[in-house]
Amino acid sequence: MSSATLTIDLSAIVANWQALDKLTTCETAATIKADAYGLGVAKVGPALADAGARIFFVALASEGVALRGALGPGPGIYVFSGHMAGDAEMIRSADLTPMINSVDQLLCHVEALPGHPFGLQLDSGMNRLGMEPAEWAALRDIALAQRPKLIMSHLACADEPNHLMNQHQLKTFVEMTQGVDVKRSLAATGGILLGKDYHFDLTRPGVGLYGGLPFIDAVPVVTLDVPVIQIRDVLPGESVGYANSFVAKNPMRVATVAAGYADGLIRAMGAKATFTHEGRKAPVIGRVSMDLITLDVSNLPQEPERMQLLGLHQSVDTVAGFAGTIGYEILTSLGARYDRVYLT
Ligand SMILES: *Cc1c(COP(=O)(O)O)cnc(C)c1O
Questions:
Q1: Which CATH number fits domain 222-343: 3.40.30.10, 2.30.30.40, 2.60.40.10, 2.40.37.10?
Q2: I want to staple 286 with a disulfide (CB 3.0 to 4.6 A). Which of 61, 102, 155, 246 is the partner?
Q3: Does 206 contact ligand 1 (Cβ within 6 A)?
Q4: Is 242 a catalytic residue?
Q5: Where in the chain is CATH 3.20.20.10?
Q6: Which listed residue (196, 242, 249, 338) is catalytic?
């Protein structure tokens, strides 16, 4: 087998969902946008539904359609982007609940699908999606008369517990929803960890389910094992890879493994990255190519058949750190060429 193996532990995703659920007394939904953060919504959705998740969040109506296909009727599927032009048929046929972001979206929704359930998204300070306080003040009575299923907002800095923005957004959200008799949601993974003031009626964790920070107690979910294609000796003065960017100072053993930036192992991780073999580190040397990466395996006691990038020894956040990015980007970049194995 020449392709790398991405192993996705569905029971670990379920365990993380249950652990996040235990941190609150309210309902816990699951955010499975972007194909469940790259891990496969057709597998992740049903696993979480079997574990008791009743509400799911996706980014786009088309993602909601795919999820409905996997889940069947019953669970709520809420769409963060709301009701966009052209979405009505998808929203109706897949029974999706758009999270309405503006007056225009509300008009579009009630015109195209009168009586169809919806929620409302408020902007409490992030300035990305949702109605701003003034817009909301003008629309509030009309919108509430249509009986929304949920009112939500999103925190910009929840992964930094001491950031003043958290309290500011909490206060704004409370003010904007004062006296409203509708279920409320503010917290994603980071918000759950901020404590019960942030929990309201429903939380919507994403990254923590998949083993990423800021949920420090997450169980690891993904393992990525990459086969070694070839091992060679490199002499002092010889170069490795494109642009001769690595030149050996000492004699070394170099392994070439079968994955590269086309598989989401982004080029920017370059010289800071390591792979592991039975817990021992092997540094990446030279440039990351499209399909190949070269590693210094001189310190390994035997010739490896496979090298591991993600797993017990290196988390998604460790690998993100190699590239100066976040675990979310590593997960959602994981490529289509991997042989995907699901553990249940
Ligand atoms: C992505 C997203 C979430 C989930 O966030 P995590 O940090 O992955 O837990 C929740 N709510 C909204 C609005 C989002 O965009």
A1: 2.40.37.10
A2: 246
A3: yes
A4: yes
A5: 10-210
A6: 242
**Residue of 10, 18, 72 lying closest to 36 (CA atoms):** 10
Q: Over range 129-149, report the average pLDDT.
A: 95
Q: What is the mean pLDDT of residues 96-106?
A: 97
- Tokens representing 13? 């995703």
Binding site membership of 119 for ligand 1 (Cβ less than 6 Å): no
Q: Measured in angstroms, how far is the CA atom of residue 287 from the centroid of ligand 1? A: 33
Q: Which CATH architecture has domain 10-210?
A: Alpha-Beta Barrel (3.20)
Check residue 273 and give its pLDDT: 97
204 in ligand 1 pocket by Cβ < 6 Å?
yes
The verdict on the CB of residue 189 being under 6 Å from ligand 1 is yes
Give the mean model confidence (pLDDT) for residues 225-229.
98
Output the pTM of the full model.
Answer: 0.96
**Which residue has the least CA distance to atom 13 on ligand 1?**
154
The helix (run of H) or strand (run of E) holding residue 27 is strand 27-28
Query: What distance in angstroms lies between residue 228's CA and the mean position of ligand 1's atoms?
Result: 36
Q: State the average pLDDT for the chain.
A: 97
Atom of ligand 1 nearest to the CA of 205: 9
Enter the DSSP assignment of 159: T
Mutate to test the pocket of ligand 1, among 120, 152, 204, 209 (most ligand atoms within 8 A of CB): 204
Q: How far, in Å, from the CA of 204 to the mean position of ligand 1? A: 7
- Is residue 172 a contact partner of residue 124, using CB atoms and an 8 Å limit? yes
**CATH 2.40.37.10-classified regions of the chain:** 222-343
Mean pLDDT of 295-320: 97
Q: Which atom of ligand 1 is nearest to the CA of 214?
A: 7
Task: Output phi, psi for 56, to 5 deg.
Answer: -125, 145
Question: What is the predicted pLDDT for the residue at 270?
Answer: 83
Give 215-283 as a 3 state SS string.
CCCCCCCEEEEEEEEEEEEECCCCEECHHHCEECCCCEEEEEECCCHHHCCCHHHHHHCEEEECCEEEE
Q: Given pLDDT bands bounded at 50, 70 and 90, which one contains residue 271?
A: confident
